[in-house]
Amino acid sequence: MAITINYYPKNVKRFSTGLGQDVGSLRSMIDMLQVFIIDSPIQNKVKEKMNWQFGDNPELKETILSKLSTTPVQLTTDELASEYPKKTGIPATWKIKSVLPAIMDGQSIAKNEDGSTPTNPDGDTFKTPMRAWPIRNFFSSAIGLGLLNWNRINGNISITTLGEQLATASHSESEELTNEELTILQLSFMSYPYAVAFLKSLEDSKEGLNKFQLGESFGFAGEAGFTSFGEELYVSALTEAYEDGDRARIKKIKSNWESTSDKYIRGIASLLSKLKLISIVDQLYSYESPKTGRTSHFSLPAYKLTGYGRENLGIALGRSKHKRTTKNVTWDMLATKGNVVYTRTVRALILMELDNSSGLTADQIATRINENKVNKMPIFEGATVTPEEISDHINGLNGIGIQIDKNANNKYVLKDPIQDFEIPITASELPKKDNVQRQQDELRPLLKHVDHRYLQLVELALDSSQNSEYSMLESMTMELLLTHLDFDGASLGGASKPDGIAWDKDGNFLIVDTKAYDNGYSLAGNTDKVARYIDDVRAKDPNRASTWWTQVPESLNVDDNLSFMYVSGSFTGNYQRLLKDLRARTNARGGLTTVEKLLLTSEAYLAKSGYGHTQLLNDWTDDNIDHSEYYDKIVNQI
């Protein structure tokens, strides 16, 4: 094995490999591989369709046809999957400008710009080509599976030896795989770290795990792209919606409460089931309707390891005299969101250092990485990789299926052989830590009892670009309170509802409002909602738009023991005056808590027996809002 550092003075090609979503058809993946086999049935079909379906660019057409006839067949990502832009108000064009749309169909029947229906040379209607983005997921996954190669310098994609074996295996026209195809694909997936991690997570579960249970440890759990909604919060919210008969809420939860990690899990599960490595079963949950008193059920898909799955996992892990499979790893699959250049590079260097040793401590790995140079310059100029950071990254690498054990001497040992790959360092984009990572670095060594997956709160609170990030900030905040800080309550969300509510055995009641803003959250014009929530729970008026307060125990004294808390990355504007005004209007204590403060106070609560809910709520609702006002005080209590 060789993991090499390659320096590029200019930008090179970038392409995320290894984790493609929406790859539902293994038959389509095999057809895609046949494009690289000269005169294969699929390649001939491509050439035939290009004769009448290719757009008005004869030079590009001839270039592609020439490449399809040249050994080895090498095509760029654009030549494989690019498309004409869709014009507003008219159907997407059925003309193609790349190879794979010729064999991958979309859902709708093709239409001309005037709405009429075109026909192919045989006089039949046909479907609009699949869009370029989902097509790219197919060859992204094929690269991760070791079926295709991708050249970073020129962007060419070509078929591997294993890919050629699959493309030329005995073939079926249906989705059902032949025995030869099944054998090759099972071998390929046992070299794919994410698939191994998936199967390994199911090994000890007799009843199976759903995507939320798997998401607790799958992949780089807790970071951007791998933050899963907690099962308890999801099931609780869905149960309440079913109990209320709130169909709109049920639909919203099912569609919105799914992170990227959950989608990855669902997508991989679909493929593993087609390979007979897992089975998909219903996981039942019961609820009682308050209107009828009847007990009903809803279900979530759960995944169980099959006999084939257990056998193949044993091969992947080198059990029963099997040799461990060589795992396919690319630099590009080592992070999906956030500051990916830095994160991918650190993780790749960890693998490189471990491969070149019989075992290293976190301190030794950090020292070696910080001493690495490229082009006579430190790789991480101006940044220091810490031992605590190394340990967290290793936990993540284990989470994607690369086994790194810790021995009795606190040394990490890489157990898996890794396929050769390169670590690209480009002069125009050197790996550097961003502000989020620097804040996480400051917190990481202090959080000895708080799970480090909650460091993702720092990034979520500063990301206001996607609705899913709002939901994840809400979900993870409430998960921390309800799962680790001994509160009862619920994550609510939705129109006319708080993001979350919590209470304890001492009678304290808390309303939580989470805000994701990259430049700081301002209370200006944003206090009326919280005031209305407080009025709702005190008035208990059944005629109001939302009766979320029915979930609050009647024994709680919400007149005297109610608190509210805004949670965000930081706060801006004249927040002290606005906070004081909101407190006076509602006669409730409340505060503004940064995610940094939330994590530090959570650590204090978990670490110190004398730091209970009273102190926790006092710290969340005091006037110490800026970092300089609370940091030293709380750290001294840890």
From TrEMBL:
GO terms of biological process kind: DNA restriction-modification system
Annotated SUPFAM superfamilies: Restriction endonuclease-like (SSF52980), Winged helix' DNA-binding domain (SSF46785)
Keyword annotations: Hydrolase
Domain FokI recognition residues, every copy: 21-168, 182-320
Signal peptide, first to last residue: none
Domain called FokI cleavage: residue spans: 433-625
A molecular function (GO) term: type II site-specific deoxyribonuclease activity
Top-level taxon of origin: Bacteria
InterPro entries referenced in this protein's UniProt entry, alphabetically: FokI_cleavage_dom (IPR015334), FokI_D1 (IPR004234), FokI_D2 (IPR004233), FokI_dom_1_2 (IPR044945), Restrct_endonuc-II-like (IPR011335), WH-like_DNA-bd_sf (IPR036388), WH_DNA-bd_sf (IPR036390)
Record-given protein name: FokIR protein
Organism encoding this protein: Lacticaseibacillus sharpeae JCM 1186 = DSM 20505
Taxonomic lineage: Bacteria, Bacillati, Bacillota, Bacilli, Lactobacillales
